[in-house]
Amino acid sequence: MTDTPGLRERKKQRTRTAISEAAIALFLDRGFDRVSVAEIAEAAEVSKRTLFAYFPAKEDLVVHRFADHETEAARVVRARPPGTAPLDALRAHFLDALGRRDPFTGLNDSPAVRDLYRMLLATPALVARLGRFRTAAERGLAEALCETADASPLPARLAAAQLVAVHWVLTLDNAEALTAGQSADARHPAAREAAERAFALLARGLGDLS
Amino acid sequence: MTDTPGLRERKKQRTRTAISEAAIALFLDRGFDRVSVAEIAEAAEVSKRTLFAYFPAKEDLVVHRFADHETEAARVVRARPPGTAPLDALRAHFLDALGRRDPFTGLNDSPAVRDLYRMLLATPALVARLGRFRTAAERGLAEALCETADASPLPARLAAAQLVAVHWVLTLDNAEALTAGQSADARHPAAREAAERAFALLARGLGDLS
DNA sequence: GATATTTCTGCACCTGGTATACATGTAGTC
DNA sequence: GACTACATGTATACCAGGTGCAGAAATATC
After folding, report:
1. Do B44 and B73 have their domain in common?
2. Is A207 on the interface with B (CB under 8 A)?
3. What residue ranges does this record give for the DNA-binding region (chains A, B) (predicted)?
4. Does A34 touch chain B if contact means CB atoms closer than 8 Å?
5. I need a surface site. Which of A58, A70, B43, B167 has the fewest CB within 10 A?
6. CA–CA distance, A168 with A148 (Å, rounded to integer)
């Protein structure tokens, strides 16, 4: 049962995290643009060529941590209890994530996460790279809506785009509040309130805007 | 009344378009990644340094054409007739743009535009760069909603994100149909229908999804 | 322990983008 | 029209991210 991954696989995993951690430490210390990949490779005791074997681009040294979340919305929709609307499942999941201080909600004030967000938001190249995850998340969510809700392709894509966009705004809003110095606990009520209003807006539409 | 822009200014404008056109011609011929900026500079009879004085990055040689549209949604909202809801103004504007075959709707099948879109969608670096315009458009629209509709900041940002996201999906959908070979005229009815449904969804919300 | 297969490395190389220092052309002034 | 002031363009060298390649080192398999 306990299939050991094998020495080779374990070593690969260790090298990977060693590279990533060396990179992030340097980035947090001096800023993304002021650290060269050559330095990172040296710090991780690895050749530059090897670094690029693990991470296809410099930006990925940071944003690979968000890779799991790119399929999260789709998973939540697929795994929702029968009889639950996708929107309700996503709202419940987001509120729960706020409670857990899930970094993906922006509401986590541990220094490591906070500083990482600060760097991320201050570095256009990283924001651009995150945009790709956003696109992938949209596509995945649209598929999930197509399959499990009885949505036809276009409405599914539209709904997915709206949902992901809103999630992004909420996360950014929290991250900005925390990078401005607020604590996660202090921010939590406002974050909940904002999320509730956002999902209500999604459910009822923009018809009230005048 | 006819204030001549001056020789200097005219020359600048000519160099600028010469560079951009040389670039796009080469890109369309061989693909974005297979053309180096050195080649473009040579083709435009300009030094590489000068090229970068006009366009800060290679991608901008293409996407600078979309720069105007980055403020379009905000302008539409600000210029709407009194008593009109922002959503209605934006819907009317989009439908009108479809009728005009505005390239920004994706519904323009002139070879130049079609090939440009094809290249754009096939080149991740360009899509990423367009993402910045999307972000800027969101921010601008949110401001406009804040000022002219009586929306508070967060709802305005949420609504703007949703609106821009939907616009993007509709445009992509049209562009994909056209790059697949359909003519703009043939696509037009479906494009209108899609837009109507999309704006209806925005207005009434996702509450129906189950 | 021998061998096949990954993985890692060093090196040369390409390309996007910038710094510097200098040449050229344009605009206004006398 | 010559003179100055300034904006613009050029050549060159340079840096950093990223790739191709050939071979060395480590791991897995027998």
Report:
1. no
2. yes
3. 36-55
4. no
5. B43
6. 23
> Does residue A197 sit at the B interface (CB-CB below 8 Å)?
yes
B11 touches strand C (CB under 7 A): yes
User: How long is the CA B11 to C1' C27 vector, in angstroms?
Assistant: 14
Q: Name B116's Cβ contacts closer than 8 Å, sequence gap at least 6.
A: B24, B28, B62
Evaluated on CA atoms A162, A164, A168, A171, the torsion sign reads: positive
- pLDDT score of A1: 45
Q: What is the pLDDT of residue B3?
A: 53
Residue A2 has pLDDT above 60, yes or no: no
Asked if strand C comes closer than 7 Å to B125 Cβ, the answer is: no
User: Is residue B158 within 8 angstroms of chain A, CB to CB?
Assistant: yes
Give chain B's domain count: 2
Task: Tell me the mean pLDDT in the region B171-184.
Answer: 94
A8 is near strand D: CB distance < 7 Å: yes
Q: Does the predicted model carry a pTM greater than 0.85?
A: yes
**What percentage of chain A reaches a pLDDT higher than 90?**
89
Q: Tell me the pLDDT band of A208, cut-offs 50, 70 and 90.
A: confident
Residue B197, both tokens: 């449904």
Alpha helix (H) ranges present in chain A? 7-30, 37-43, 48-54, 60-63, 72-78, 86-99, 111-122, 124-148, 153-179, 184-204
A1 in a structural domain: no
Domain range for residue B162? 63-204
| A209 within domain boundaries | no
Pair A199, A142 in one domain: yes
**Whether B46 and B149 share a structural domain:** no
Q: Is residue B112 domain-shared with residue B143, that is, in the same domain?
A: yes
Is the pLDDT reported for residue A180 higher than 70? yes
What share of chain B in percent tops pLDDT 90?
A: 86
| CATH number, position B15 | 1.10.10.60
How far apart CA B10 and CA B7 sit, in angstroms, is 5
Q: Which of residues 167-196 of A touch strand D (CB under 7 A)?
A: none
The residue in chain A having the minimum alpha-carbon distance to the alpha carbon of residue B147 is A210
Beta carbons within 10 angstroms of residue B186's beta carbon? 13
- Which of A145, A157, A136, A137 minimizes the C-alpha distance to A85? A145
Residue predicted with more confidence, B209 or A144: A144
